[in-house]
Every structure is written in structure tokens, then in C-alpha cells.
Amino acid sequence: MSDDDGDEPGHNQDPHGGGGGQRDSEGRKIIEFVDTDVVIGEWAEEFKSFLGKMVRSRVSINIDSWKKVSKANKDQIFKEIQHDYAVEDNMKKPLLKKLGKMHRDWRNRLRSGFINKTRQVGKDCGEAFEKYKDQLTKEEWDSFVAKTMTPEFVALSEKNKQAALQNIYPHHMGRSGYVLSIPKWKEQGLLDQFLTGSEVDSTNSSTTTSGDIPRHVTWFCARSGLTADGHIVFPGNTEGMREKKEKLDKLQEDVAAGTWKPSGRHDILTEVVGKPDYPGRARGVGGGVGYTHVFDRESRSTHRDKVGNLSDVDLKQLQERLMKDMQHYFVPRSEVPIGDSMPTFEAAHVDTMNSAAPHLKKHSLMVHFVGLLLSHTLILVIRVWTLWPWL
Q1: Cα dihedral angle (107, 110, 115, 120), rounded to 10 degrees?
Q2: Which of 83, 152, 242, 329 is deepest in the core (most CB within 10 A)?
Q3: Residues 40 and 128 grouped into a single domain
Q4: How far does Cα 49 stand from its chain's mean position?
Q5: Do residues 289 and 304 both lie within one domain?
Q6: Domain final position from 137, 169, 204
Q7: Cα–Cα distance measured from residue 243 to residue 145, given in angstroms and rounded to the nearest whole number
Q8: Are 249 and 192 in a shared domain?
Q9: Region (Disordered) spans which residues (predicted)?
Q10: Considering the domain boundaries, does residue 166 fall inside one?
Q11: Structure confidence at residue 369 (pLDDT)
């Protein structure tokens, strides 16, 4: 199953065997990561095969969701990974996320290859539990097959299929991903087709990483190609992608002329696609890369400081406005002074306490307390709401 991600070791490859890669002082194989999602280096293929084996042998195919895998099981899996490979503790979360995707893909491949028969798995390979007899039992397989036939499972499968159809601009990178595709795009000259002059200068390096290239460029490269004579082609949604390319060209001209400027998460790619990124994900960078890597941390910090400075003035004015509103709605009309000489609720309260009947003093104190409480609560809520996207 050569099309399976991490399903089996390569030819003459032993996941626990020797090799010429680097090792740490404990003899563990050193793994190199790019953007927390892509594994590179001499142990890369072996490591991916090892992860695939861990998923198939440690997590039952009858567990519907990775979230349902127990914490103890996940901890044990990561412990076994660290036993053979030098992986830092801070890689636990992204690695477990990757394993969750591998588990989901494993279940989907079993369905497409052995149940729906929509994918070739090789002649005379028999049932799945026969091909993977060291990872599946007949009882486990029969239970999985029965589960995929239930109305609930069929309905969910159809829902996911329809959701997948909404992706009208699919990439065609295969298993390589963005990081490993960039050197190939650069060698082919595909990157230059989507870069402006200033962007070309910033990426003119043999060690170019995904972080050096604007994500609208990588997004387009993943959905295009070059003919033998150097013309851009779009193998997927050709007409739709041509329209997006025209929009990209116009935006890049506007940016150069200063008539359009990207703002935070509303960058060139967001404008081209026509809708924002899905929560927690960013287009054009790969599954393991989030907003922290996509959007410049310094610019976000500067924006946060700017918002904080502005909010001190604005919130002070808001507080005064709120106090006036509280005066209007809570202070009895007979107690409100006539004229403009009482700009704040506190002034109204002082005048009221000097002239009102004793039973109204208690009322005014209560109103004063409630007003202050509400105003400070509102200020806190506005501060959190304003700064939340940047925290």
C-alpha cells in the first residue's frame, strides 16, 4: 500500500533497526521538525512508518474519534515514541494531533479499500484482517464492518462527503505538504510566477522555508503547475483558479501602489479567497501551522499595545457616559438637579443626599453602588473582548 501515509516501512527498512542518522547521548534517533508538522532528516521516513505502526497497533479501529482515546493510552504512546526517538516534550501535542489524523486516515483507507472497494489494494490480498493480521483480529474487523453499515454511520459519512465537496480549490501536493514542496516549486520556477519583485528578493535563498514565503504564494503553487514552455496551468478548478489569479495580480498591483493594504488576518489570500480562515486553521501553510507562525508576532504585539493605549481614553469616556445614563434611569426625577452643572452621577448623588428624605438616602447609595459595579464590569468585558484575538 504505497499510497498509505506511514502504513508500512519502506523496502529493506527496519523501524527499529540501524542507520546512519544522528543520535543523542542515549542512543535515541534525533528527529527534525519543520513547523511542528513536517518531519525531515535521515530518520524521517522511518519515523513516519513508526508512527503509523503505533496508531494501528495501539488504537482500535472501532474507536470512532481520536478524542475518545484515553489519556493514559495517549501518554503511553508518546512514552514509547520518546523511548526510541529524541522528541522533546513540547512536541507531544502536535504529534498526538498528527497521530489522530493518521488514525482517521487509517480507518478511511480500510473502508475505501476493503468495504466500499473504491480504492485498489492489490490482487489477492484477501480481507483486511488477513493483510494486517499482526494489527487486526477478525472479530475487530467484523465489528468495524458492521458499524460502517449502520444508518448513523452512513449519514455521517454522507455529511462528511458533502463537506469535502465544498472545497472547490483542492491542492495536488499529495503527501509532500507545503514545506517539502517549496524546494521543488523553487527549482521549477513556479514560485516566481506568483511573487512580486520585493517578494522575490526576500525569498532568494537556498534555505527558503515556508515562513519566508507569503502564504498566498504557497496556496497558489499548491493548486497550479507549469507546462514545458513555462505557462501556468491549473489542473483542478481551472476557470475558478484563473479568476483567483487575476484577482491576485490586481491586489499585488494595488499593494505596490499603496491603494490597498493588508490588515492583520485580512491579508492578500483572505481577500482573494473571499472569506476568512476557519477557526484554528490557516490556509496555505499546512495542518501543523497556526496563526502564530502565519501572522507576524511583532505586528500583532504592536497592534495590541495600540489598542491598549486607545482603550484607556475611550473607556474613560465610556465610563462617564455610563454614569450619566445611570443617573437618568435610576435617580428619581425629583432628585435630579436642573441644568448642566452636574456632569457625573457622583455629583447628583451628593446633592441628593443633602436634600432627600432619609428613606431616599438608602436608595441613592444602592443605586450608586450598582452603577459603579456595572460600569467597572462593562469596562473589564470590553477590555477582554478587544484584546482577546491578540492574547
Answers
A1: 140
A2: 242
A3: yes
A4: 25
A5: no
A6: 137
A7: 44
A8: yes
A9: 1-27
A10: no
A11: 72
Q: DSSP readout, 226-240?
A: E-TTS-EE-SSSHHH
Closest C-alpha among 234, 231, 55 to residue 136: 55
pTM attached to this predicted model:
0.61
Instruction: Reply yes or no on whether the pLDDT at 303 is more than 90.
Output: no
336 and 274 assigned to the same domain: no
Last residue of a domain, one of 110, 137, 164: 137
Please return the burial class of 167, using the count of CB atoms within 10 Å of its CB with bins 0-12, 13-18 and 19+. exposed
For every residue of 71-117, DSSP letters joined together read HHHHHHHHHHHHHHEE--GGGHHHHHHHHHHHHHHHHHHHIIIIIS-
**Window from 34-38, 58-62, 117-121, 326-330 with minimum mean pLDDT:** 326-330
Instruction: Establish if 22 belongs to a structural domain.
Output: no
Instruction: Please determine, for residue 12, whether its predicted confidence score (pLDDT) is greater than 50.
Output: no
pLDDT band at 134 (very low <50, low <70, confident <90, very high): confident
Residue 2 maps to a domain = no
Domain count, the chain: 3
Contact 251, 268 (CB under 8 A): yes
Q: How many helices (H) and strands (E) does the chain have?
A: 15, 6
Distance CA 11, CA 8 (A): 9
Cα-based distances in Å from 289 to 26, 326, 342, 388:
30, 48, 56, 20
Report which of 351, 319, 314, 317 is spatially closest to residue 334, judged by C-alpha positions: 351
45-89: pLDDT as tens digits: 899 999 999 999 999 999 999 999 999 999 999 999 999 999 999
Residues 271 and 356 in one domain: no
Rounded mean pLDDT of 80-108? 94
Q: Is the pLDDT of residue 223 over 90?
A: yes
What domain range includes position 208? 177-294
Confidence of residue 122 (pLDDT cuts 50, 70, 90): low
All three cell numbers of 144, joined, read 468495524
pLDDT score recorded for residue 305? 46
State whether 243 and 197 are in the same domain.
yes
Q: What is the pLDDT of residue 76?
A: 97
Q: How much is the average pLDDT of 255-264?
A: 91
pLDDT at 3: 43
Which of helix, strand or coil describes residue 185? helix
Q: How far is CA 256 from CA 199, 204, 269, in A?
A: 11, 19, 16
